[in-house]
Amino acid sequence: MVYEGPASKLDLQCLRGSRWVLGYDWQTAVPCDEPVCESVLTINSFLLYIAVQKDETLDGELFVGRGKFSATVSIVKTSGTDRWKQVTYMVFDSPSRGDDPFESRMQAIQSWHQSSQLDHVTVVLHTLCQGVKHVQTELKRVTETLGGEGLMLRQPKSKYQAGRNYTLLKVKQFHDAEAIVRGYSAGKGKHKGKVGALEVEMASGKSFKVGSGMSDHDRDHPPAIGAIVTYRFQELTDDGIPRFPTFVGERVDMTAPKDAVIVNATKT
After folding, report:
1. Cα(16)–Cα(39) distance, integer angstroms
2. Which of 17, 72, 127, 237 has the maximal Cβ count within 10 Å?
3. Spans in the chain with pLDDT lower than 50
4. Please, are residues 215 and 70 in contact by the beta-carbon 8 Å criterion?
5. Which element (helix H / strand E) includes 91?
6. Could you give phi then psi for residue 8, rounded to 5 degrees?
7. C-alpha dist (Å) from residue 165 to 3, 60, 134, 141, 146
8. Closest to 69 measured CA to CA, from 146, 149, 13, 10
9. Of 187, 254, 264, which Cα lies nearest the Cα of 226?
10. What's the pLDDT score for residue 72?
11. How far apart are alpha carbons 143 and 55 in whole angstroms?
C-alpha cells in the first residue's frame, strides 16, 4: 500500500474521546466523560478533541498545506483563534485496532469518517502498489509536481506499530529526523552577530551542526536550548553523521530526538 506523505505537517498520535466532543470549528468542545489525561492532547493550553467512539484512537497529522510548515507551527502555538479553522487532521491509522490487519483498520476509519461528517478531519487515501516502477513514478509526481515530501509504504495486512518501523517506510529523496538543540555556533560573514548554526544531538548520541536552511529570522530567534528540531539530509557518513543536513523547523509536538530509520544504514 502506498500513500503520499504530505510535507509541512505536525505529527499527532493516539487522540482518544469518550463521545462526540469536537466542535466543527476546532474550538467548541463538550466535556468528556473520562479523565482529561485519557481524552485530550494539550498543546500550549489548547485542547484538541477528536470525535470518536469510546476507546477509539486515531493516528494522524496536523496539516495546513504543502510548503506551510512554519504556518502550521505558528497556529499550533496559539489557542482559541480562528486560524485553527485552517488546520486539517489527516488520519491514517487506528492504534486501538492495532491487532487487526491494516486493510481492516482503514475500512473502520472510513466508516467512522463517513458517519462523522467532520470537515476538519480527512482520511488519507491509499493506493495498491504495483511495483518499483509505480513507486518511482508516484515519488516523482508527488515531490516534483505537487511539492510533497514523499511517499509512505505500508506492508499489507500488517499490525499497528508505534514509531518508525519496517512495516511503514518513508520513500523520498531525502531523509528527515529530529535532534535536540544543545548549543549555537556564532555566525560569520553576512551572518555575523547572528546564529551561524545549531549544535544538535541525535537520539543515537552523535552530535553535529546544522545551519543551512535557516532563515534570517531563525538566526535572530533560534530554537531554544533543549528544543527539538527537524533536519533533512541525504545520507549518513560512515560515522553515522548526517551528510549535508539542512534545517526544516522546530517540532513543538515532540520532547525527544528521533533518528531516521534507514535500511542498510551504517551502524557504529
Report:
1. 5
2. 17
3. 1-7, 12-51, 264-268
4. no
5. strand 88-93
6. 60, 60
7. 16, 16, 22, 25, 26
8. 10
9. 254
10. 80
11. 36
The CA-atom distances, in angstroms, between 12 and each of 59, 102, 124, 228 are 7, 19, 14, 15
**Joined grid coordinates for residue 52:** 470518536
DSSP designation for 115:
H
Q: Give this prediction's pTM.
A: 0.58
DSSP code of residue 30? P
Q: Judge whether 197 and 154 are in contact, CB under 8 Å.
A: no
Contacts of 213 (CB under 8 A, 6+ apart): 231, 232, 246, 247, 248
Nearest to 202 by CA among 115, 265, 134, 142: 265
Grid cell in block for residue 33:
466523560
Residue 138: helix, strand or coil by DSSP? helix
